[in-house]
Amino acid sequence: MKNPTLPLFILMIGHFAIAQTPGAPLPAWEEGMLDLHHINTGMGDAAFFVFPDGTTMLVDAGELPPNAPRAGTPRNTVLHPNDSKTAPEWIVHYIRKFMPAGRPARLDYALITHFHDDHWGKIHPNSKKSDNGDYFLTGITAVGDQIPIGLLLDRGYPNYEYPLDYLGTEGKQVQAFDLRYQRWFEDFHNYLNFIEAQRGLTGLQAAQLKAGRKDQIVLRRARGDYPGFHVRNVKSNGTIWTGTGNATFEYLPDPKNLPLKRRPGENPCSNAIRIKYGKFDYFTGGDMPGVADLERPWWIDVETPVAGAIGPTDITTLNHHGNQDAMNEFFVKTVQPRIYIHQNWSSDHPGHQVLRRMTSKTLYPGPRDLFATNMLEANKMVIGPSLDRAYQSTEGHILVRVDPGGDRYHVIILDDNTDQYLVKQVFGPYESRDVPYVPNQHAKLIAHRGGVVEGTYAENSEKAILAAIQRGYYMIELDLRETKDGEIVVHHDPDFNQFYGVDRLVSEMTWDEISQLRATPGNTPPLSLEQALKLCRDKAQIMVDAKGDGHPVSFYEKLERLLLDNGLLDRALIIGSKENRAYFHGKAKVGVPLTYLKEAIRNNEDVSNLYFLFMHGNELSPEIVAYAEKYGVQVVPSINLFHYTDIDPMKGAERDIEMLKAEKVTYFQIDSEFDQWFIRR
To answer: What is the three-class DSSP state of 75?
Structure first.
């Protein structure tokens, strides 16, 4: 049930006494306030920010084409407040209305999160040609044609090489096999023409958003007066901030290793930023997805690493408009917003399960309020009363007004039915939270013995592998043995006593015989290597542990071919028998003990590219880690239950994991019982 004390009509903002009366104009922004306007045109995303010193910024300027198949149907919203102007013209009108008093309309910054029409516009039959250059007016080009932009940030300027070379041969190739790309490239080149024209006309500058930095978007007028304010660039393309300093890491796969049709699309490449003002935190991330299901690759989930970097916030906008592939459990329970702002325009915004996750007290305790720019009748009919209970407001421009210093804020709904933008409702005051948070180290977890077991599934089984992938493991260790008829089977022990209750050696049974077995628990058959790799392809990398020596060369040749065919050899880690390590020497990184590494260093081998240090976690020390890092050698500890015979395994594992995390170790081969120190379940 909605809080009966809301909305409040008289607000005290710091030392300002400002009347917020429904039906009255919004009191003007004043120095020290942070205003975050979420503009509702009904045609896509647009947000206008006024920073504490009056620096201005626009995030996205969407314009869905009025001739699109869904336009004018119950599936999409209509143009707000009316069709006397285009969506970008209404954005221009709104910005001019709420510019700091006495200043000409100018945007110090404009950020395009990604290149979809509801975020940057699309040329359509009604698009007019600019009088200022060789470009059509749509989305950001129409806004920038009327309001000068100081610095335009996107995810690729000036080379646009990720995830493909848009300006080179790859750009021509994708246009050849997909008509949609041909049309997209018309918008792309229109955008480039706009940038070039505005550079000469208004002095516009353009750049790629650089992840990790907080000195690219800065206060332009009185930076020294507000030391508690900054904008952190969290993500751009596949580069994501670690949450510590300015450090970043590469999360999305190297596109050069993927066919053109399987490279990351626009949504996972979205730019993301966090605004911090004293205790107050605000996050917006474009159309970032977070659910890697239905055969989609694991790296589609970019929400998880982003959430691990930013931690709790006061306010977050819904990723991908609250579509069904966004706002995953880890993101919700880690970011824990007090306020969700929903910029939506479609009948599938939000997905029903998305709403359940956002409102779940299981994922995080305490109240949370949801606000939407639009909510279609179709959403209300399908989702039902839970939607009405969750949302405080479902129509209007959404302004977050933060007090000077950032300790408190209010959410103010402005009428989107006219161009007067009168106050409709006021919610708050909300107290900003300063929640202590240590960002995760983006650990790359390697599932020991083929996945998440924990007494629920058999080792190296399909269910164990899929459970590890679902939980976010980076890599699966596969134990390999050879059958009587030369098949490579994924199995740890030399016999099938454990899990299958069959007292026979793997090497004495044919694949046909083995495939008839069923495990307890799980009722699953053993997997061939080929089956296991298909489960992992595009979802998890592989650690290869070939058991025993004496395998014929054909065994290793087949193993290599299957890894190559599934795109898993480049990042594979090799452990196990001496034969296994010798065969893959120079083809993939090989795990070696400390004595071997020292000998290789003495022999001047290229240790950083050939080897990784593979040791039990309880045998490693800060000195050993530092030694390996001195030579650029990756450290991969194994944290397994059977290592701890003289101490409670949970206590021993926690001790070793915390020490290794402090030493900046990121790869861990672990039994899943220990992943609680990395994954918030």
So the answer is: coil
Average pLDDT (622-640) is 95
How many Cβ atoms are within 10 Å of 380's Cβ, its own excluded? 14
How far is Cα 427 from Cα 431, in angstroms, rounded to an integer?
A: 12
The pTM for the full model equals 0.71
Q: How many helices (H) and strands (E) does the chain have?
A: 20, 32
With 60 as the cut, is the pLDDT of residue 88 above it? Answer: yes
DSSP assignment of 404-436 equals TTSSEEEEEEE--SSSS--EEEEEEEEEP----
Q: Which of 453, 321, 431 is nearest to 366 (CA)?
A: 431
Helix (H, G, I), strand (E, B) or coil at 277: strand
Is the Cα dihedral 576, 580, 585, 587 positive or negative?
A: negative
> Pick from 428, 432, 307: which is nearest to 363 by CA?
307
Q: What does the pLDDT average to over 455-482?
A: 91
Q: Measured on CA atoms in the order 478, 307, 337, 278, is the torsion positive or negative? A: positive
The tokens 């030399």 sit on which residue? 494
**Measured between alpha carbons, how far is 395 from 374 in angstroms, rounded to an integer?**
5
Q: Using one digit for the tens of pLDDT, what is the confidence trace for 155-203?
A: 999 999 999 999 999 999 999 887 788 899 999 999 999 999 999 999 9
Q: Tell me how far apart the alpha carbons of residues 46 and 63 are, in angstroms, rounded to a whole number.
A: 9
Token pair of 458 as six digits: 């058999």
Q: Beta strands of 62-121 (E only): which ranges?
A: 107-111
- Give Dmax over CA atoms of the chain in angstroms: 87
Distance CA 575, CA 544 (A): 6
* 56: CB partners within 8 A, 6+ apart: 48, 49, 50, 95, 99, 100, 106, 107, 108, 109
Distance CA 131, CA 135 (A): 9
Helix axes 553-565, 529-536, angle to 10 degrees: 20
Cα atoms in the Cβ-side hemisphere of radius 13 Å centred on 327 = 29
Q: Is 176 exposed, middle or buried (0-12, 13-18, 19+ CB in 10 A)?
A: exposed
